[in-house]
Amino acid sequence: MKRCLRKLLVGVLLAAVCSAVPAETANVAVELAVGEMVAPASSAIVRDGRLLIAAQFAVSHLGYAREDGYKAVTLKVFGHVLLLRDGAAVCSYDGEELELDVPAVMVDGELYCPAKVLLQPFGAVVKKVAEGQFRIDAPGAHIRDIRQGSHNESVRVVIDLSEAAPFRCRLQAGAVVVLIPVRADGQGRRNLLRQLQFSEELVPTVTESHDKGWAQVHISHFSSEPPKVFTLGEPARIAIDLMRPEPLGKPQLVPTPERPSFPKQIEGVKWRSCSFGSERGPIQAWMLIVDPHDTDIIIRPALARDTIRKRQTVKRIAERECAYAAVNGGFFAPRGDPLGMLVIDGEWIATPLHQRAVLGFGGDGKAQIHNVSFDGWVKFERVGKLPVEGINRGHEGAHGIVVYTPRWGELLLGSRYKTRIVVRGGVVEAVLQQGQAAEVPVDGYVLSGVGQYANKLRDVEVGERVDLHNETNAPWPDLVHAVGGGPRLLKNGQMGMDVYDERFRSDVRGGARPRTAAGIDKDGNLILLVVDSINKGMTLTDLARIMGKLGAVEAMNLDGGGSSTFVIAGREMNQPSDGVARSVSNAIVIIDRKSVAAAVKGK
After folding, report:
1. Rounded average pLDDT over 4-27
2. pTM of the model
3. Concatenated DSSP letters for 259-282?
4. What is the number of other CB atoms lying within 10 angstroms of the CB of residue 31?
5. pLDDT digits (tens, 9 = 90+) for 413-427
6. Dihedral (C-alpha) 111, 114, 120, 121: value to the nearest 10 degrees?
7. Which of 84, 119, 242, 501 has the CA that lies 20 to 30 A from 289?
């Protein structure tokens, strides 16, 4: 049967004809010919007569997942990975170089990508129907099945497709709506309606309806957490993860080691509320001063869960860690992946990003702030020494090696363009190719090679000894804990935001918003400050000045906005800008050994 094509119309809003100035860019509006989904005028541009689509439009209307780099973006959909860079005539497509008909271009901080390569995973094509007008012919798909899987922490809804197709996801109160262009079924029907009932209370109902060439999958749920939407390939699937609420547990009449009873103040830790004047009115903040030299005090970062793709509120993290105090930590992706360095008890969980500022602690407990990059390598008996580009993250370039530890999760999905090496106890246990998935051993890790390094890893033999070395550049000896953030606020008592290019977007650096900062005073004390959402928070420049007034000689910014949280003795003190406490990837916790010991003794 001949495949039907759904037509997506792209119309130019400008009166001028694009071909008159072929080297220039022109804004266009992207409108789907079916349904009533209209994108902003900045969603596409025309350059040299060819259509380029904003990376954000690829996320909102085509179903891509997005990871930003410096003047580059990584886009993922249905098992395909595209890496595009500003001005580059080639891109990385599933680990191989692909020549572009027009380079990607950065405009006002957004990367516009050639439509031709963005539509390739769907088998779609761009056609010019008039001067300055384009049409995208995108094949539809059959929805083969909608199924549900239950896990300890989440419920997953999976939409099985006959093939990859562009889709749009809308998040509503208590619902996720997925819109997919579809072909007629085997009997030629297009208008279908069915309701699926599941025994799972968190996601009891899924309704599938078809109208005018579109399928709408309406997923009703009772999760308070933002859903996680992603795609899988071979076969094509759309997956939606909905997190279960935290169990409340039974009330405890006697303090336990998990929930110690804290006094209002403890030795070695001082905290207080602060108020600073500004043109917007008084700004509320909360401050901790911690003595790292006090042997009864432990300062360290803590993950939300055992693996990186999970989130919890700072209060929950503090309760689990038996912490007296806690603030939010570093930046993270929507699903929880740390965006920056994270080391806990000497275990490398995530590597530095763009030489951004890092707060770290050595074996002596001394706090330090440095701007560092990653300097890692792996050495085999036969292949020799090879560089490592990162830990527990996606490949950034067309050639490289990434390490995946148990913090990533139990399984690393296969990719036909990558070679995977399973290492257990320092010995190669398996060499996997041709898209084979790799189980991450609890006492080891998996190496993933792409491009020329995929070829090098193919020469590794099972049974070889492997030596993995993780280090920073500049070297940071005896590093025990570290959490990344940025930008640097103070360096040797002077303004530090322009000392390093930490590659933050202008919208991150600018504007007043709730903030969290870490600083070190001349005596080595750690200063943690959370700026409340009252009167819109504080600019980074003001934050640097305030940290200086509080006595800091070294200081850095941490994650902010809705993530900014200040917890003391189990109580959230600040007012979250989201209205409720945001779930975060990691936190900085302050643990009092005496309080925990007293709780154990009391039990």
Report:
1. 37
2. 0.62
3. B----SSBTTEEEEEEEE--TTS-
4. 15
5. 888 889 999 999 999
6. 0
7. 501
